[in-house]
Design brief:
Layout (H helix, E strand, L loop, with lengths): L20 H12 L8 H4 L6 H28 L6 H8 L2 H35 L4 H17 L6 H24 L14 H5 L2 H14 L15 H30 L2 H4 L5 H47 L16 H16 L3 H29 L14 H20 L1 H21 L8
Length: 446
């Protein structure tokens, strides 16, 4: 097997610390709020109908995300280099595990959310405008967005931030108007007989997978620790504040959906925001809300289409077997990586199943985040001498809580959704095996 060597380091100026607490918190909120909040409830209602466990899904999911984010904060401070799990797992365990995590992220980690957002776009577009095929529209939107990015059209951060504000305002409008809607549905959010038992059942664990999909992005500010002022204070505070704000918004919004809209209309449906919007704002107002969500989905697709191929490109630059993905055109665009991601997105769209895609991808992503969070405890035991500007609060409770809940979800996913889970596990194993064929590209003399 080829000798494994570290790539030649390139020294760069230390980034200026320009991001304060408020901006860091906004980055966390912007990265969490995506398509999941407007799509997940319909699939949770398939097996759970009682109000208390439905809201506990979002509370427990938020606590899990918060525990994970705090753990990522410590790792980012102790191992300050970009790359996420690709970097963390390589340093904590072995480069093979890092490559596996990078492979999962570079393939399905971004492609799956794009496919899910495209599926939701198709459903919302038809629901709002009453024309077209949801399946065809999902393909059209990803091809159109990819074409723009291949032509060096990058959607600026200001545009992305604008749509994050719009989504926050839309959530606020849903919550405010929902309180005024009469009459309300016959549902209570206080514990009822059997509710506590249902929280520990497999159906709850599988439904929690959709919630964790909605909370993805909880580790956002831990990736920019080098640019945050007083990171040992502001990174954990931003993770805490941002996640708590999103937890409050998610719990209130789902309570409003359940209180204003009949469950049978939302059950098994993707476009729950549009369905609930028509009950809250009326037919016309609901269509306006649906149109806003449509545009937000396009911005989410654009953002992930831009970011995802850059992960593949980085791996292509490090590993000779993936060198095709590291190549860029004269404009600096990783065209091969973008095309590969588009092909994977198209394969996921061909399943035509929102549920299956979530279950397939979340299993492998949960596995990678589990290794990373456990890595906090491993690193403390094996490398106690490393400087840690920030340490996880209430250690070791956050990594333990995250690990227990994640293992619980993975167990029931494997038991109840065996085919999708095994496919996700196979994707991770392919990445692991590919590492031993690829190795790291030896550096040639300059």
């Amino acid at each position: 097997m080829a000798t494994i060597t570290e790539p030649r380091s390139v020294k760069s100026r230390t980034p200026r610390r320009t991001i304060g607490f408020v901006t860091a918190s906004s980055i966390v909120i912007a990265n969490i709020i995506g398509t999941g909040i407007f799509t997940s409830l319909g699939f949770q209602l398939t097996d759970i109908q009682s109000g208390f466990p439905l809201l506990m899904l979002w509370i427990i999911g938020g606590i899990t995300a918060l525990c994970g984010a705090l753990c990522y904060g410590e790792l980012s401070a102790a191992l300050p280099r970009s790359g996420g799990e690709y970097h963390f797992l390589s340093k904590i365990y072995h480069p093979a595990l890092g490559f596996m995590a990078g492979f999962v992220s570079a393939t399905v980690g971004f492609a799956a959310p794009i496919a899910l957002a495209a599926m939701a776009f198709g459903k919302y577009f038809v629901g709002v405008f009453g024309v077209g095929s949801p399946v065809l529209l999902s393909f059209v939107v990803v091809w159109a967005v990819t074409a723009f990015h291949l032509r060096n059209l990058q959607i600026g951060s200001a545009f992305q931030n604008l749509w994050t504000i719009v989504k926050l305002l839309l959530i606020g409008a849903f919550i405010t108007a929902g309180f005024l809607v009469e009459p309300k549905q016959e549902i209570t959010f206080l514990p009822q007989p059997g509710d506590t038992t249902s929280i520990f059942r497999g159906a709850f664990a599988v439904a929690l997978v959709y919630v964790m999909y909605s909370y993805s992005g909880w580790n956002a500010s831990s990736y920019i620790i080098g640019e945050v002022k007083k990171p040992e204070k502001n990174v954990p505070r931003s993770l805490l504040a941002g996640t708590l704000i999103v937890i409050a918004a998610y719990v209130l919004l789902n309570a409003i959906f359940l209180a204003t809209t009949p469950q049978e209309e939302m059950r098994g449906q993707i476009e729950v925001g549009l369905i609930a919007g028509k009950h809250i704002f009326g037919a016309s107002g609901g269509q306006v809300a649906g149109a806003v969500i449509c545009l937000g989905l396009v911005s989410a697709i654009s953002s992930m289409t831009w970011i995802g191929p850059r992960v593949s490109m980085s791996m292509g630059e490090d590993h000779w077997l993936l060198r095709m993905l590291g190549r860029k055109n004269p404009h600096g665009i990783p065209t091969n990586a973008i095309v590969l991601q588009l092909l994977i997105v198209n394969m996921l769209l061909l399943t035509r199943s929102f549920e299956s895609v979530v279950q397939y991808t979340q299993f492998s992503l949960l596995l990678c985040s589990l290794f990373t969070v456990v890595g906090v405890m491993v690193l403390r035991a094996t490398r106690p001498e490393i400087a840690r500007p920030y340490r996880v609060w209430a250690y070791p409770l956050p990594p333990i809580i995250f690990s227990v809940i994640t293992l619980w979800m993975m167990f029931y996913l494997l038991r109840w959704k065996t085919i999708e889970s095994l496919a996700g596990l196979a994707t991770a194993l392919i990445g692991l095996l590919l590492y031993f064929f690829a190795g790291k590209r030896s550096q040639r003399p300059a």
